[in-house]
Amino acid sequence: MVAMIDYGVGNLFSLKSSLISIGAEVVVTSDRDTIRTADHILLPGVGAFEDAAKKLHDMGLDTIIKEEAGNGKPLLGICLGMQLLFDKSLEYGVHEGLGLIHGEVRPIAEKIPEGLKIPQIGWNALRFRKKSPLFRYIKDGDYVYFVHSYAAMDCDDAVIADTEYGAYLTAAVAAGNVFGCQFHPEKSGAVGLNILRAFVEYGGEGAR
Amino acid sequence: MITKRIIPCLDVKNGRVVKGINFEGLSDVSSPVALAKYYSDCGADELVFYDITASAEGRQLFTDILCEVAKTIFIPLTVGGGINTVADFDRVLKCGADKVSVNSGAIRNPDLVYEAAKRYGNQCVVISADVKRVDGVFRVFAKGGRENTGMEAISWIRRCVENGAGEVVLNSIDTDGVKHGFDLEMLDAVCNAVDVPVIASGGAGCMEDFVTLFQTLPKVDAGLAASIFHFGEVAIPDLKRLLSSAGIPMRL
User: What class has domain B5-245?
Assistant: First the structure.
């Protein structure tokens, strides 16, 4: 069972539907016991980092996510959910994240040339940087759908794929059993569904 | 590199797609779910659903259908038509829409764009403007292009973007239905005025019109059309291959 964390941030309808469409059993929840019994944890999110981090904390979900990830349970953060996995974000101030992946989230404006539109909205190609179980069913150069103004930086060790938008921006990260996608797999057609399928089939570090 | 987007627009009335022909392998052309799946399988980069229903019952039917579509296809969905309040945003977003397009609603209530952007984020709010030349000036029209608001279009669109609209759909009334190509002059003016994505709408008659659009105006992010896709005059896979061979970045 996949526990999709419900902490009042963003719209979970499409992500839930996409998991159901690949035959996954999914529960949208903020209940600690349900999260503990789940085989996989999905951390979605759209919106502002500070507000999301605060909600996770206020609901006591930050500790349980860290505990479960620490125990080796596969965790996938999507979009803002990915950004929350990092040490900190510089979106409107400096805010602490979950610290599960080292690096920080900063404005893409720092990296890309002037004249490019921000946010990056649209389909862009993945450039694989490392082998990953997440990429089991997709190939280098496949297109996925992005909507973001911030990106993870100073995290070279964790980058498994990036994407070119005037400069190379972090597209997907992994540190052991913890994964993150900056793009929206639930809006990336067949490629996105194949990433989700690879995640729910992934059994954790060294397992299966 | 980010790709240019090709977006079919579906007009829905009382839960059915208003016009179209039968494609091979598509049994019910007026079923929004079947048509959405067909377009998604063909490589459409995004879909726009436009609700032209007048009644409340029809609106409910539309949101039910939208939920079905969002359960079936997994590409970005934009919804427009009858969006007048933040509650309307809520209604369609809960059914799986990713972006909401406002037109007359923003003209009637100038705070709508700001309120919605604050609540759901700029990426969620699309300003759709119907624009027509009147005595050489671009003017915004309301009520499906029937009523001249008297507002100058470029400053209106710029104001909407300042208030939080994350994308602009520009429908040129002058070229709409004429099928002689997009309104490049009007699009150029809008692209130079805002720094958010601009989607061209109105005037596409053949595949070459899209090539001309993206080659002449590299700042345009997407091309939107309805009838040429629905009536089979342009097949999306052919269009995307042609654009790609002309050097336009495409998701193939």
Answer: alpha beta
